[in-house]
Amino acid sequence: MVDRLVNSEANARRIAMVENCFGSSGQPLAEQGRVLVGEGVLTKMCRKKPKARQFFLFNDILVYGNIVINKKKYNKQHVIPLEEVKLESLKDEGQYRNGWLICTASKSFAVYAATATEKEEWMAHIEKCIEDLLRKSGKQPPSEHAAVWVPDNEASVCMHCKKTQFTVLNRRHHCRKCGSVVCGPCSSKRFVLRGQSDKPLRVCLQCYDELNRERARPPNQPAANAPNPVKAGDNAGSGGDSSQDDDSDDDDERPNAEEKHDEPKFYGDGDKTEETNNHSSKESAK
Question: If 55 and its partner were Cys, which of 64, 170, 192, 194 is the partner (CB 3.0–4.6 Å)?
């Protein structure tokens, strides 16, 4: 009983420290039954380039933010309910190693750990939290997830027409359905994508046609759940989609210095080890 109280107090202190590091820019994280399972730095594949982000794994949510001062201050807090998450391991490719996808209905992205062991630990702990949540709630894992955006630097020309060269004037845009990098004319249509937003989002012409064909099929689900087409000029001016085109945590233009980050900490494992050691010490003292 005492051990449980000590662990509960330690957990409360850890959560308070996370809240303090985000300051007023973050939302309160302390809730009844919430446990901080682990924390550490992962490299997140952002729209413009890979960037280090601080991640906090709780038993019901995954939180991450931009690193302002390592271990002391973070901003641009993002909170992802774990019930919505699906993980998918990525194969090592060139400089991108030890990665996996974090997929949700509204946003999906790739992250990379420093080592294969860290990747294994992160994925195992996240999967365990998801499994426990779904078992307790009786819910089924989500079947649809948002597309992972292709990074800007992987497309010098439009991935749809294969002709338009991207310049300062010819901006890159992302199709919200498939994640491809496309030019303005090839993404002039908009669609309300279920799970991502109630507002019409930019999609490429190919996805727009596919979505319309899908909508025209005999409905297997209520019509209210089907995506709604929107004409190119509706709800958007020439720059109406520009703010939505940006990855909301991708505008940190500080130099991404090569910092040495500590290995991730997973408290459940540490607490068990500590309890075991304490118990062994007491037994030896008898």
Answer: 64
Sign of torsion over alpha carbons 246, 247, 248, 253: negative
For the record, the structure tokens of 62 come out as 């995954």
Q: Are the beta carbons of 45 and 30 closer than 8 angstroms?
A: no
Q: How far is it between the farthest Cα atoms of the chain?
A: 80
The CA-atom distances, in angstroms, between 63 and each of 44, 87, 159, 275 are: 13, 15, 32, 27
Residues 153-210 pLDDT 10s: 889 999 999 999 998 888 999 999 999 999 999 999 998 887 788 888 899 999 988 8
Q: What is the DSSP letter of 249?
A: T
pTM above 0.90, yes or no: no
Angle at the Cα of 248 (from 13 to 209), degrees rounded to 5? 135
CATH architecture for residues 2-145+263-276: Roll (2.30)
Domain ranges, ordered by start, for the chain: 2-145+263-276, 152-245
Exposure of 233 in the CB half-sphere (CA atoms within 13 A): 0
Strands 108-112 and 36-45: antiparallel
Q: Which CATH architecture has domain 152-245?
A: 2-Layer Sandwich (3.30)
What is 124-174 written as a DSSP string?
A: HHHHHHHHHHHHHH-PPPPS--PPBPPPGGG-SB-TTTS-PBP-SSS--EE
b/e map 68-78, b = 16+ CB within 10 Å: beeeebbbbbb
Is the Cβ–Cβ distance between 170 and 164 less than 8 Å? Answer: yes
**Amino acid, res. 51:** K
Residue type, 33: G
What values do phi and psi take at 253, rounded to 5? -95, 10
